[in-house]
Write a structure and sequence with these properties.
Layout (H helix, E strand, L loop, with lengths): L13 H10 L2 E2 L37 H8 L6 E4 L2 E4 L11 H5 L1 H9 L3 H7 L4 H7 L2 H12 L16 H12 L6 H6 L1 E6 L5 H6 L1 H4 L5 E5 L4 E4 L11 E9 L5 E8 L5 E5 L5 E4 L3 E5 L17
Helix pairs in contact: 7-8
């Protein structure tokens, strides 16, 4: 496996930040509704006659009566009203926040994360160790993998390794789905449909069911020994011997300069990948397309990460 580090860019939607703010607020208690105004100071002194109890200092002098009332004044903490919920401010005016995982609990947070997209869930892995344990659970990522693989032509073999976490399976699937460098395992694991292009000689096109509409497309099979075969009775194949090769060249910094597949001495075929992760190899004469096989047990393709 390549040692290169791969970073998956993630983005958390604003609705998820709103969830943090909402869950960090405690509902206003009914008995607090009749309390004095939040921004006013409350004087604990009564309107009855002044008290005669003297407050003595060390020097024996009494504390002035007007100072007694002001000394008894206590400032209440300011409270912030937000959408019907109330939280007390601390000395610096910052809201006292709570971890949504503590407020809502494991099961409810699991349901919330299951409704978020995979990129948002991936970002929540960075919140804390507890969040990482929650957001990386197989219970959560099993459904994400099913969503990712739905409608895909091929499921990568490296995501089906026994014992691998579902989070790793998802990440490896995304990386492999963007791969355009075809390997021998890719060629040999799939069945390929073959047809000539419009510019191919008319004689060949007349033998091709793709153009004549006389039957299903022709199929080709690649084998680990480097050979290629076709179905019995294939009129184009004719029983001749075929071998294939994959050619990949690099420049000095490791970037791929050329990558193509060649069969016998026929013109080289360029390689491309479709949105559903299927493969296509083509030149000006003919085209190969991999047949979807997502249900194939154990997946397909190489067992190692290819860049």
């Amino acid at each position: 496996m390549s040692s290169s580090a791969h970073v998956i860019s993630v983005h958390l939607p604003s609705s998820f930040f709103a969830l943090f703010l909402f869950s960090s607020m405690a509902p206003t208690r009914p008995e607090e509704m009749n309390e004095p105004n939040d921004m006013e100071e409350v004087d604990d002194t009564t309107s009855s006659s002044p008290r005669t109890t003297a407050v003595h200092f060390g020097g024996g002098e009494s504390m002035p009566e007007e100072m007694k009332g002001s000394n008894r004044k206590k400032k209440r903490k300011k409270r912030v009203q937000l959408d019907g919920y109330e939280v007390a401010d601390n000395a610096n005016g910052d809201c006292l926040q709570q971890d949504p995982l503590d407020v809502l609990g494991w099961d409810l947070m699991m349901k919330i994360l299951s409704n978020l997209d995979a990129r948002s869930v991936a970002l929540s892995l960075l919140v804390s160790r507890r969040w990482h344990r929650l957001a990386s659970s197989d219970r959560l990522w099993s459904s994400k993998c099913e969503e990712l693989w739905l409608g895909k032509a091929h499921i990568p073999r490296l995501s089906q390794v026994r014992g691998i976490s579902k989070l790793a399976a998802y990440s490896l699937s995304v990386i492999d789905g963007k791969r355009t460098r075809i390997m021998r395992d890719d060629l040999c694991d799939h069945v390929w449909e073959f047809h000539f292009t419009k510019v191919a000689p008319e004689y060949w096109r007349n033998l091709d069911p793709y153009w004549k509409g006389t039957g299903p497309p022709m199929r080709r099979y690649f084998h680990q020994d480097g050979s290629q075969t076709a179905d019995p009775g294939d009129r184009v194949w004719g029983g001749h011997e075929c071998c294939f090769s994959i050619v990949t060249s690099f420049i000095w910094d490791g970037t791929i300069r050329e990558h193509y597949v060649r069969i016998n001495r026929w013109p080289r075929m360029s390689v491309s990948r479709k949105q559903d992760w299927s493969w296509e190899m083509s030149n000006h004469l003919f085209c190969y397309s991999s047949i979807p096989d997502a249900s194939k047990e154990g997946g397909t393709g190489p067992l190692f990460l290819v860049m």
